[in-house]
Specification:
Blueprint: H1 4-11, H2 15-22, H3 32-44, E1 64-68, H4 73-78, H5 80-95, E2 99-101, E3 121-125, H6 130-139, E4 143-146, E5 156-158, H7 162-175
Parallel strand pairs: 1-2, 1-3, 3-4, 4-5
Helix pairs in contact: 1-2, 1-3
Length: about 190
């Protein structure tokens, strides 16, 4: 269950303001847009004043995320890019009180794709075939692909812009008069 602090962080107001709005304090003055945002946030998080002891945070499956990573744990630990990617996902989920689970990794032989139905969303790091994407969409339509450099129909994608940014930097250097430019990169 969400707390007043959770609602305050999402709605962009103080916890005291949330408390006064949800308790219909007649002496409290706040603009109507902020009041509506707090009430809508509380509804979307299923906030209830009647529960004095909320228990463990976010057992609601709609507030859970399945995280499917491409590489095994040892590769992730030795590769700072993937390690930071995973850490960032976990930190943001913790900030928003979302539950993150890793039901399996893409490389695992024994994957139970049907388990993805019980999550509010699925984050998949890495490339997949169109057939696999359709299969996952039929189980859980709330998919976000991470670090995919192709467009996938009807899917959300978060990707880096290494190619675009590298081109931009090289163009900028060239336009500043630098003609002998060396680029050293690591392929995947």
């Amino acid at each position: 269950m969400a707390s007043i602090r959770d609602i305050a962080r999402i709605a962009g107001v103080s916890p005291a303001s949330v408390s006064r709005i949800l308790n219909n304090d007649p002496t409290f003055r706040i603009n109507e847009a902020s009041r509506a945002r707090v009430i809508e946030t509380a509804k979307s998080l299923h906030y209830s004043k009647s529960q004095k002891h909320p228990g463990p945070k976010q057992t609601d499956n709609q507030l859970s995320i399945a995280l499917i990573m491409r590489y095994n744990k040892s590769r992730e630990i030795t590769d700072p890019y993937f390690l930071n990617l995973h850490k960032g996902i976990n930190e943001e989920a913790k900030k928003w009180h979302l539950r993150i689970e890793q039901p399996f990794r893409i490389e695992d032989d024994d994957k139970n794709w049907a388990d993805l139905a019980k999550f509010g969303a699925v984050l998949i790091e890495g490339e997949m075939t169109p057939v696999a994407i359709k299969q996952i969409q039929s189980i859980n339509p709330h998919i976000i692909f991470i670090d995919v450099n192709t467009n996938i129909h009807n899917c959300n994608i978060v990707r880096n812009d290494f190619v675009e940014e590298t081109s931009h930097i090289l163009d900028t250097l060239y336009n500043l008069g630098h003609k002998n430019i060396v680029y050293i990169g690591i392929g995947s």
